[in-house]
């Protein structure tokens, strides 16, 4: 039985019927006619596949064992729903708890400081826990409930997941400031491919979308180094003649302070970064707040001030 197929008004009537164990009194309590309440009881019996209330001498009704089992959980659930509807916005200053976030190293490093500072001002009782990045596993960890929010290039708007676009980032060629190629007036394809490259892959893959684009025009590059993280790669770029084709957002990390960039002499599709969350946290004020703050600080990855 899916929740969207259940009439909430019917559950309210069932609660009254089980409490009163009397159709007439339940009808009076709810302001309904007795025939309407009897009809609701019939629908409830079909919903729960149980009579719920059965005849008992001399002229009353008694609850079945199934009715006794669901009576308190149903009352609690309806009370919780009532609080959700009637309670005002939470007092962020009194919130306590932790929000678990997964992001690759560059978004975590570039956004982490601003996110932590914003959270300290808005809800100082909320702790932010960055979980390790496992390439390709972040959405499954969200589905399993191991984390609350994921910042990823993977869009996952399906089932119980919801995705929001944080930004789109074109590629740039990244190199150290005194790299030989940095002084070349015309940085073209031949210049780019004349130097060894570094790529980032959590799985150790040497080729990716850049190599596919090069193959389409009959060219290739030499990948001399594969790094597991962007921060590792940026450190290597600072002291070598390696080049990298990275989303321009990497330049906003402190590790890129000694680096410079050039436009890519090749057409590459930009990278989109998404924030993914699970519907189970829709009513969680702490997760909702952190998701809001992520959206506010995300412009930093485009070199813009956070809103």
Task: Kindly list the characteristics that best describe this protein.
three-stranded antiparallel sheet, five-stranded mixed sheet, single chain, 38% helix, 12 strands, D-Maltodextrin-Binding Protein, domain 2, alpha/beta
**What is the H/E string?**
HHHEEHEHEHEEEHEHEHEEEH
Terminal CA distance: 43 Å
Strand ordering within the main sheet: 4-3-5-12-6
Percent range for helical residues? Answer: 25-40%
**How large, in whole angstroms, is the Cα Rg?**
29 Å
Catalogue the unreliable spans: none
The number of helices is 10
Number of domains: 3
Please indicate the percent range of residues in DSSP E strands (runs of 2 or more).
Answer: 15-25%
Describe it.
This protein is α/β, with parallel strands linked by helices and 307 residues long. It has 3 domains: 3-86, Arc Repressor Mutant, subunit A (Orthogonal Bundle); 92-166 and 271-302, D-Maltodextrin-Binding Protein, domain 2, CATH 3.40.190; 171-263, D-Maltodextrin-Binding Protein, domain 2 (3-Layer(aba) Sandwich), CATH 3.40.190. It contains 10 helices and 12 strands. The chain has helices at 8-20, 23-30, 34-48, 65-86, 105-122, 138-143, 189-193, 209-216, 230-238, 285-297; strands at residues 53-56, 60-63, 97-103, 126-131, 149-152, 161-169, 171-176, 197-200, 223-227, 244-247, 259-263, 271-278. The protein has a 5-stranded mixed beta sheet. It has a 3-stranded antiparallel beta sheet with strand order 10-7-11. The model has no long low-confidence stretch (mean pLDDT 88).
